[in-house]
Amino acid sequence: MEVQVQWIQSGVALLQPMMALVIWSMVVWAWMYATRLPAISAMQMKLDPTAPSGTQMAQLPAKVRWKADNYNHLMEQPTLFYAVTLALCFLNQASELAVVAAWSYVVLRIIHSLFQALFNIIQVRFVLFILSNIPLMIMIYLAASRVF
Known about the structure:
Four Helix Bundle (Hemerythrin (Met), subunit A)
């Protein structure tokens, strides 16, 4: 039991879900280009650097754009997750609750990614987004209660 407590308190257990989300983000990045580049080629698009941002990519099929949309989402709100995870580590607050909350957040974000990239059912994505905020808010509370 003491080894497990030391493992959690060391912060490594809290860094694992953070790195898992980083790795997932790179998987989505690769998935985005693995679908985008063939679509651009199939459509024989001539990429124009003077075109307004997003106008050319808007011509791609929706199923191709969904991967890029999800990649963008992984660069938005998860930045709070990364910040609070590092804060908890620096504050030596890598408790079991923090680790469970972090893994819960990561699992929910991965499920959210899969729904957005494959089906894009907005109602399901919204529920998953809201649910993912619960463990994130727990983590923020744990860090803020230590800082303030």
